[in-house]
Amino acid sequence: MSWLADWSWTGAALGLTWAMGALLVWRRLPGGRRPTIDDRVAPYLQDVALPPPTVRRGIDDHGLLVVLRPWLVRAGARLDLALGGQESVRRRLQRAGQAPDVEGFRAQQVLWGAGGAVLGTAGATIAVARDRSALVPAVVLAAVATAAGVVLRDHLLSRAVRRREERILQEFPTVAELLALSVSAGEGAAGALDRVCRLSRGDLAEELRHCLADARAGSSLPVALQSLADRTGLPGLARFVDGIVIAVERGTPLADVMRSQAQDVREQGRRAVMEEGGRREIAMMTPVVFLILPVTVLFAVFPGLQLLTLTV
């Protein structure tokens, strides 16, 4: 009877394997792969869909920070009352390509300040353990470290804004040339923007997608372009947008306007490179004047001084 039990277990395993294989085959049949309502509607909404948001980790994406979020929000509100400048922070967040969440940014500043406080407290504890009379400098060190954490987060935001604007300026001439080529080929302003957005990648292309989505959502193209110029805050891009808006409203040729604007941006970039080269040249004179020149003078004067000493 043992061999019969063995064969029964073997048959059960084979039957289960066959059933799983049949189930997989049935699931992959055309009848089991019917498109959902989202799959059927998505192609018709592709042209008017908003650009996918950039995935950024916020304070809600971490388990511990979810617990601390109420405290962080209250501390961020108090920090905002102490510092002020909500409009400036919101403006810089938009220019950095981030969500204009001032509350979340203040919470991040509180976290950075708490990190600085931990480091400052650790250094203060070591200083007090070595010298009992260094209590006041230790407290000052902890306070300065806390303030440094808050200021450092604000500085990093300004740095992100500056780097993004530099990338946009680097991409701008190429995008302007592509727009000019599309318009010269017979497309309108909206069609040229659509083609460039589909073919381009980068920060400026993302801003153009946002602008095109606003235009397709009901806003006029000049208003959407003006909002793009307001979000970025770049003078060259603002002039470019003004030229397009005037050309669209007055019916002047767009291709010539875009080419001239692209040439202006290239000239501006060339001038910026030359100015940066001049500043670097002046900076290179610092070690020459304060290090190499004094050593050279010392080597030239020292033999004479030594000779005068021997003569005397």
From TrEMBL:
Chief location category: membrane
Record-annotated Type II secretion system protein GspF domain positions: 177-301
Protein's name in the database: Pilus assembly protein TadB
Annotated membrane topology: Multi-pass membrane protein
InterPro entries, alphabetized: T2SS_GspF_dom
Transmembrane regions listed in the UniProt entry: 6-26, 110-128, 134-152, 288-308
Subcellular location: Cell membrane
Keywords: Cell membrane, Membrane, Transmembrane, Transmembrane helix
Keyword Transferase: no
Species of the source: Arsenicicoccus cauae
Record bears the keyword Cell membrane: yes
PANTHER family registered for this protein in UniProt: INTEGRAL MEMBRANE PROTEIN-RELATED (PTHR35007), PILUS ASSEMBLE PROTEIN (PTHR35007:SF2)
Gene Ontology, cellular component aspect: plasma membrane
Coiled coil: none
